[in-house]
TrEMBL record:
The lineage of its organism: Bacteria, Bacillati, Bacillota, Bacilli, Bacillales. The keyword NADP does not apply. It is found in: Cell membrane. It comes from Aneurinibacillus migulanus (Bacillus migulanus). One of its GO terms (cellular component) is ATP-binding cassette (ABC) transporter complex. This is Glutamine ABC transporter permease. Pfam families: BPD_transp_1 (PF00528).
Length: 215
């Protein structure tokens, strides 16, 4: 094991560049997933005819597929129908598709957890359905669903490593490039990668626990 050589500044900088890509892909995917998930959850919660059934089928299908398959489909299969995405865009698209389905179920469960009596009271006070959803249901539901959503975001951050299969220059990819250059770098590089993942994910888990206790 060559820790000194593995931890030379060029290697560490290369890992940090990959880690930055990991964080960028995760951040963009988190934002897009959350927006889409809210729409999906509200459509299902409101039981909009036909549309809610279509969203249900889509969410259930995506939730029961492996993320790796979705990454392959987005990057390779879509090219056969003329949709060619760059590696960075394909990774974000695949993660967004998968995570939006997962997060939508968390949000829908949060919406369903709001006491029906409060909804009836809001409607009786003159609020229409949209106002009740905005001012009564969503604020309460969001507080309850924040911890599980943060946990899902942690999973998303770890899932970015699967994009190594399409050569996204993220943390795992760059680490592989380094330790492929010299076999004595394998353990030191993987150890440093593990520490990087642990630090960011542990920080997020602390946030999730604090949010859970503050409810």
């Amino acid at each position: 094991m060559d820790f000194a050589g593995a931890y030379s500044w060029p290697n560490v900088r290369y890992l940090l560049e990959g880690f930055l890509v990991t964080l960028e892909v995760a951040a963009i995917s988190i934002v897009l997933s959350f927006i889409i998930a809210i729409v999906f959850a509200i459509v299902r919660y409101m039981k909009i005819p036909i549309l809610s059934q279509l969203v249900f089928l889509w969410v259930e299908m995506i939730r029961n597929l492996p993320l790796l398959l979705i990454i392959f489909f987005v990057f390779f299969a879509l090219r056969d129908v003329g949709i060619k995405l760059e590696i960075f865009s394909a990774a974000i698209a695949a993660l967004t598709i998968f995570e939006s389905a997962m997060i939508s179920e968390i949000i829908r469960s949060g919406l369903m957890s709001v006491d029906k009596g409060q909804i009836e009271a809001a409607r009786a006070s003159g609020l229409n359905y949209a106002q009740t959803l905005r001012y009564i249901i969503l604020p309460q539901a969001l507080r309850r669903m924040v911890p599980p959503i943060v946990s899902q975001f942690i999973s998303l951050l770890k899932d970015t490593s699967l994009a190594i299969i399409i050569s996204l220059p993220e943390l795992m990819h760059n680490g592989q490039v380094i330790y492929n250059s010299k076999s004595t770098y394998i353990i030191p590089v993987l150890l440093l990668i593990a520490i990087m993942y642990f630090v960011i994910n542990y920080a997020l888990s602390i946030v999730a626990r604090r949010l859970e206790h503050s409810r």
